[in-house]
Amino acid sequence: MKLFLLFFLLFSLSNAQTTKDFSVIIHKPFNAGLFDITEDHDRTITAVGFANEFKRSSAPSKTYTNAFDYLESVSNKYGAQMSLIKVNNQAQILLSKTAKLNRFNKAVAVVKTPTNGYFIGGYTLDGSLLVAKLDANGNILYAKIFGTKNYDRMSNLILLSDGGVLAVGSSFTSRATTDAMFQTGLGNNDIFITRFSKEGEILWSKKYGTRFDDNSIDAVEAQDGSIIVVSTMSSQKSRDVSFMRITENGNKIWLNHFITQTQDENLVVPKKIIRLRDNNFVVSLIQYNHVQKEHIRLVKFDLYQNILADKEIATTYPSGLMDIKEFSNGMLMGVGYVKDKHNTDGLAMLLDSDLAMLKQEHYGGENFDIFYALTILHNTQVAVAGIHTDDYSQEGNMWILKLNQDATIAQIATLQGNFYDALCKTFEKEIQANRLHIKEDLTIEFTDKALYFKAGEYKLTQAQRNFLQRFSKKLLEFLYANKDYVETLSINGHTSSEWKNVSFKERYLNNEDLSMKRSFSVLRELFGTQDESRQKWLTKILQGSGLSYSHNIINSGLEDKTRSRRVTLKVILK
């Protein structure tokens, strides 16, 4: 198995030490782990999970300003406790806080609110469910402990379009005939779903299932407000994977037992469902073969139960995806685990829009490592949460990793704060003079009118060449000084959308050809200004492309044709 060895120093209880790779490991006494992760509005990263800590005696309090203090007050048992970790772009821990609630077992989900706060969902050791809403500073806005008199367990918490949340879980059967929630025929474990308003009011709680064991795994909101639920059903004779669609009020629209298998057949276990940008859905499943080796299975379907794709991804070692997300370009990334006889590693897998695997990377040491969740960041990088186990250890630790879009590990930006700030400092005069603009994703856009191309032209004017000579000297000196961080310098040509008296096909192809010529003109100018040793380095990072009019500039609903005729550059970090 390919291993990505992590080199790090030991952490104190509240601080972590990292290498150049963006990998943060938080050691706690006894086992700990992270199960969900999100990006904050200030570009920091927050993850939730559990840690085992012991409650110290303290004077009782009747007023609570912090969610964790409130959670501590509702029980006096001992055990695992909910933890929240926040890190910045330099992989520094800004907040590491553990609830002193020994009754609370695990936090399973964290989602953002429009005010930069959080919804956190989980369950207690004795079988109650909990949803807490926190502000941006971690102060409690409300907390709800709910469920049945029996054993309940939450599997996920879903943010809805109205600002509320949907708690998805399972509940052991109750036979209280006076409770309208429980209907005839439900038995053993049942699907248990509760919808909250953004103010914390329970709008409805409903159970679904059969007389056998039914367990909900995940859910997602459709574009029309209905909800798709993924669950399993197990009896003595069969095991099913089921998709169910319910209304926003919880009324069942349809139920599809997608996979019905006997106990003698290979096991299939669903893990995650997402809604794609085309408003269809993808479910990640773990498929076991005849020798009980697990591998990855992905199913795409639409709102009307039509299966659009069903693909199994065979891997050399047993593998599974615990979470999956879609990039804006239609590609997907999944994270989970890969294992052999001796150890388990965290798995990151890049997939195309047809669910075919493009690349996989393994991360971990010589022991047990696993990824449970990912979130796609604003700059197309990916933050991952999971568990890391040190070599020669039996205890799991909290783990946050940042990856690039190609699944390689990201670097910590340490250049006078970070790479973006350092790049902006390099071109401070040009930015102040409104000659160029640098985005946080390290895209460089020229804003001086003299730097745009005229319609149909791609050869550089003298003004453009003069500017590019000065610009390229500063840019390439900066990139070369920090070449250990730089993966690619992409030079992208663009056009406006017009081309007179031709068909649609010719209009696109002519503009594609023109955009590539514009890209090459700038690439040639930058390349030609360097000496031979620097040119050899540039051959490893330069990448030219023509984007036709696919990224034309729109202002107030209309195309800005002048500004669309341009070339942009983008620095892509390792």
Write out key terms for the chains shown.
four-stranded antiparallel β-sheet, 35 strands, disordered N terminus, Neuraminidase, 574 residues, single chain, 4 domains
Summarize the structure.
This protein has 574 residues and is mainly beta. It has 7 helices and 35 strands.
Would you write up a description of this structure?
- The protein is mostly beta strands.
- The chain has 4 domains: 1-23 and 266-412, Neuraminidase (6 Propeller), CATH 2.120.10.10; 31-146, no CATH class; 157-195 and 207-261, no CATH class; 419-573, OmpA-like domain (60s Ribosomal Protein L30, Chain: A).
- The chain has 7 helices and 35 strands.
- The chain has a 5-stranded mixed β-sheet with strand order 29-30-35-31-32. Strands 1-28-27-26 form a 4-stranded antiparallel β-sheet, with no helix packed on it. A 4-stranded antiparallel β-sheet has the order 2-3-4-5, with no helix packed on it.
- The two termini are 23 Å apart.
| Adjacency order of strands in the biggest sheet | 29-30-35-31-32
Largest beta sheet, briefly? 5 strands, mixed
Structural shape: globular
Q: For this structure, what is the CATH class of the largest domain? A: Mainly Beta
Would you tell me the overall average pLDDT?
Answer: 84
Whole-number count of domains: 4
